[in-house]
């Protein structure tokens, strides 16, 4: 699986893309945990006190679909990691 980072996450990762091999489909929550293991500085954006995984500090997108923590991803997916958007 290919993970493509957008600012500010590209600076945290030190690269624009990360490849994570998957043996079987996993939930987005697990994917975030795997990214954090590979890039520890990513942790504050996905965890809060009590070790609970957050979904509102990062947005993961597959194609045009915004992923939720319970959605499943698989080996051939290309995932974009974006900051949350807001407007006013």
Compute the number of helices: 2
Rough outline: globular
From the 3D structure, determine the CATH topology: Ubiquitin-like (UB roll)
Low-confidence stretches: none
Whole-number average pLDDT? 86
Q: How much strand content do the residues show?
A: 25-35%
Q: How far apart are the termini? A: 35 Å
CATH homology superfamily: Beta-grasp domain
- Written as H for each helix and E for each strand, in order along the chain, the element string is EHEEHEEEEEE
The radius of gyration computed from the alpha-carbon positions, rounded to a whole number of angstroms, is: 12 Å
CATH architecture: Roll
**Any idea of the CATH class?**
Alpha Beta
The largest β sheet comes out as: 5 strands, mixed
What is the topological layout?
Blueprint: E1 2-5, H1 9-13, E2 17-19, E3 26-27, H2 28-38, E4 47-48, E5 52-53, E6 59-62, E7 65-66, E8 72-73, E9 78-82
Parallel strand pairs: 1-9
Antiparallel strand pairs: 1-2, 3-8, 4-5, 6-7, 6-9
């Amino acid at each position: 699986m290919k993970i493509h980072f957008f600012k500010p996450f590209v600076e945290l990762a030190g690269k624009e893309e990360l490849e994570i091999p998957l043996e079987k489909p996993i939930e987005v929550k697990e994917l975030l945990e795997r990214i954090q293991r590979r890039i520890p500085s990513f942790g504050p954006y996905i965890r809060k006190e009590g070790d609970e995984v957050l979904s509102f500090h990062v947005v993961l997108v597959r194609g045009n679909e915004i992923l939720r923590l319970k959605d499943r991803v698989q080996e051939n997916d290309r995932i974009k990691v974006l900051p949350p958007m807001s407007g006013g």
